[in-house]
Design a protein that fits this description.
The chain is of the alpha/beta class. It has 8 helices and 5 strands. It has a single domain (26-179), classed as Cytidine Deaminase, domain 2 (3-Layer(aba) Sandwich), CATH 3.40.140.10.
Length: 193
Amino acid sequence: MTFLPENILPDWAQDYSPERQGALATTEERMRFAIELSQRNVEQGSGGPFGAAIFESETGRLVSLGVNRVVAANCSLAHAEMTAIAMAQERLGVYDLGGVGLANHELVTSCEPCAMCFGAIPWSGVKRVVCAATVEDAQAIGFDEGPKPGDWIEQLTQRGIKVVTEVLRPEAAAVLNLYKEKSGQIYNGRDLS
């Protein structure tokens, strides 16, 4: 099965292809990249307010990117993190980004993972996850992030995956609020009261 970018990513994403990006040395630079993806997705009206990327941890080389395309692609799996993971695995020809002989990889995402994306992280092979906005920020605009365990960071840490949260959180939360201001579709929102 091939996960082709042209089947899931918006046309503008080609501007950010790994071949066109230089290495991003710092965690903050990598996060700015993920937030920029989320903002462009909102501004272009091409999907939800979430962006993610897979980088080689040591070099900062971009391996893949993803944006939320659930509504546009009619695919509940088309979250930014899921897309970035799948495209990195496709690009490298592996099912495990932590496989023998590979560089360590990290997932940098504009928001903490929802329940589905959290579940995919251990199987992806990434060694580090960096998040900006919190689940509470996403829920504040109406998204239902699902039944993720409260100790999700500890669970990933026990599996050898380092988690860093709230990197540039205000900038990422501003994109979520922009999406709400633009009346972006809040799919799968549930009244949990």
